[in-house]
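Researcher: Structure prediction, please.
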Amino acid sequence: MARQFFVGGNFKMNGTIKSIQDIIHHLNDAKLDPQTEVVIAPPALYLLLAREHLRQGIEVAAQNVFDKPNGAFTGEISAEQLKDSGIGWTLTGHSERRVILGEQDVFVASKTKAALDGGLGVILCVGETLEQRESNKTIDVVTSQLKAVAERTKDWSQIVVAYEPVWAIGTGKVATTEQAQEVHAEIRKWLSSTISKEASDNTRIIYGGSVSEKNCRDLAQQPDIDGFLVGGASLKPAFIDIINSKA
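Model: Predicted structure follows.
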């Protein structure tokens, strides 16, 4: 069975009540490819606003989740609280959290496991820096990030892997179609050898890193690119074009 195309919109620390309502109204009114799964990730403050106003069929993701149950963890949000609020997805491992906040692979893996155990779908972000790519360490870095999660769970049915080369996020640079496809194929090969052939066949591997309405259609035609995790462009009308890039 073909993997369902998946497009996520990561709003990052952007938006106001008004601007997010405008984005939601635009999505609600748009003609979206019914074969594409769409998930948006607004800042935590606006998760309930998004869930309340989005039409059925578009899901909401948190940008972060903690790896412990409810308790004395100031400033954090648990998987249980997200689930209770009708939020079905979370991101883990985004490079901005790995780089700026120092989140290590083992912590990302722990968060991923907690989210899965709490009944959430996970968009697991992996990717290399420019220095790592120029040192030909891309595959080593990405598979090391994945391996940390594999040590915590063998069930990847609720994981979407997002390959986001750090050097392409918000820079306007984008991996070439060939570069992106090459890494996606290596991730799929790793899933087959480390998890199972079923996981390799069924796990969606999406691309992120300056995805725009200009480059999305070529990327979407690649055999191992199953969608996109979109940053800045998810705040703009062009997000609709990216959602419909496979149509």
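Model: Residues 51 and 210 are 26 Å apart (CA to CA).
Researcher: Thanks, that helps.
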